[in-house]
TrEMBL record:
Protein name: DUF3553 domain-containing protein
Pfam families in UniProt: DUF3553
Entries under InterPro entries matching the protein: DUF3553
Native source species: Ponticoccus alexandrii
Domain of life: Bacteria
């Protein structure tokens, strides 16, 4: 798993670098490299942390 992804915790806000139209997402869980994120425009998505590096958003 990517180092940044390993720091993601439930409640944190992120963006998917390859899917900007999904909008802001909130991490729901991060278990064993599988990251569940609820994106504003896409809904709930389960991502493989080894394949996608999510971008933390600190200012909303």
């Amino acid at each position: 798993m990517n180092d940044i992804n390993s720091l993601l915790e439930p409640g944190m806000l992120v963006r998917h670098p390859g899917q900007p139209d999904w909008g802001l997402g909130q991490v729901q869980s991060n278990i064993g490299g599988r990251i569940t994120v609820n994106f504003r425009e896409q809904g709930k998505v389960v991502l493989d942390g080894a394949r996608v590096t999510l971008v933390p958003v600190y200012d909303g």
